[in-house]
From TrEMBL, chain A:
Gene3D superfamilies with a match to the protein in the record: 3.10.20.30
GO biological process: Mo-molybdopterin cofactor biosynthetic process
InterPro entries in UniProt: Beta-grasp_dom_sf, MOCS2A, Mopterin_synth/thiamin_S_b, ThiS/MoaD-like
Keywords: Nucleotide-binding
CDD domains named in the record: Ubl_MoaD
Any GO molecular function: nucleotide binding
Protein known as: Molybdopterin synthase sulfur carrier subunit
Gene Ontology annotations for the cellular component aspect, listed alphabetically: molybdopterin adenylyltransferase complex
Family: Belongs to the MoaD family.
Species this protein is from: Thioalkalivibrio halophilus
UniProtKB/TrEMBL annotation, chain B:
PANTHER family: MOLYBDOPTERIN SYNTHASE RELATED
The protein's name in its UniProt record: Molybdopterin synthase catalytic subunit
Family: Belongs to the MoaE family.
Catalytic reaction equation(s): 2 [molybdopterin-synthase sulfur-carrier protein]-C-terminal-Gly-aminoethanethioate + cyclic pyranopterin phosphate + H2O = molybdopterin + 2 [molybdopterin-synthase sulfur-carrier protein]-C-terminal Gly-Gly + 2 H(+)
Pathway: Cofactor biosynthesis; molybdopterin biosynthesis
EC number of the protein: 2.8.1.12
InterPro entries, alphabetized: MoaE_sf, Mopterin_biosynth_MoaE
Length: 77, 144
């Protein structure tokens, strides 16, 4: 399955890219599993995530065609 | 209820006057307003500019979700939330939260709740430029 991955702010700068297409072997993946598949380690502790532009957690399922975003804690206002 | 993302400098008082138009004046006994502007200092350093990044699409949806939650909780006549993105200079308005209700407690409490949730939940990130030319991502909100 194919997933659109986005990175924001400091994370985008550290990784040197604002996103990528992830090709995953099968259904049944989670947000944390997607990160591990792409980066070879568990997601950093303070990382925030969204699936299809809604807040998500590490255990949120990821499906074919989803947009998954990873970003640092937010600092608006 | 309106949620606005401004890519250029905006006047919060003009935005407020415009937002108020749609609410019957005889009913709105109370308005509560918060305007946040960019400071020229942070953590003992002089800050000369700010870049505000957002997540187009999700940011608007999160703001709408926060406003809808407030509308469920308090009897509000109107809500206007505006937030700046892009290159910001000291003194520019960053955020406007305005709530209207028949009575002061609902207006005041909803305004405060929307602002605090916005600061902790809506996807915005600040990168500040310092006087020596360096820049850094802001890692956390000020406590209050």
């Amino acid at each position: 399955m194919t997933v659109k991955v986005l990175y924001f702010a400091r994370l985008r700068e550290e990784l040197g890219r604002d996103g990528e297409q992830a090709e995953l072997p099968a259904e049944g993946c989670t947000v944390a599993g997607l990160w591990e598949n792409l980066h070879g380690e568990p997601p950093p502790q303070r990382l925030m995530t969204a699936v299809n532009q809604s807040q998500a957690g590490p255990d949120t399922p990821v499906r074919d065609g989803d947009e998954v975003a990873f970003f640092p804690p937010v600092t608006g206002g | 209820m309106t949620v606005m993302i401004h890519h250029e400098d905006f006047d919060p008082w003009d935005a407020l006057r415009a937002a108020e138009q749609g609410i019957p004046v005889e009913a709105r006994g109370a308005a509560s307003v918060f305007v946040g502007r960019m400071r020229d200092f942070n953590e003992d350093d002089t800050v000369t500019g700010l870049f505000l990044e957002h997540y187009p699409g999700m940011t608007e949806q999160e703001l709408e979700r926060i406003v809808e939650a407030a509308q469920q909780r308090w009897p509000l006549l109107g809500v206007h939330v505006a937030h700046r993105v892009g290159e910001v200079r000291p003194g520019d308005a960053l955020v406007l939260v305005a709530t209207w209700s028949a009575h002061r407690a609902a207006a005041r409490d909803a305004c405060s709740d929307i602002l605090e949730r916005l600061k902790h939940e809506a996807p915005f990130w600040k990168r500040e430029r310092l006087a020596d030319g360096s820049s850094r991502w802001v890692e956390r909100n000020t406590p209050g």
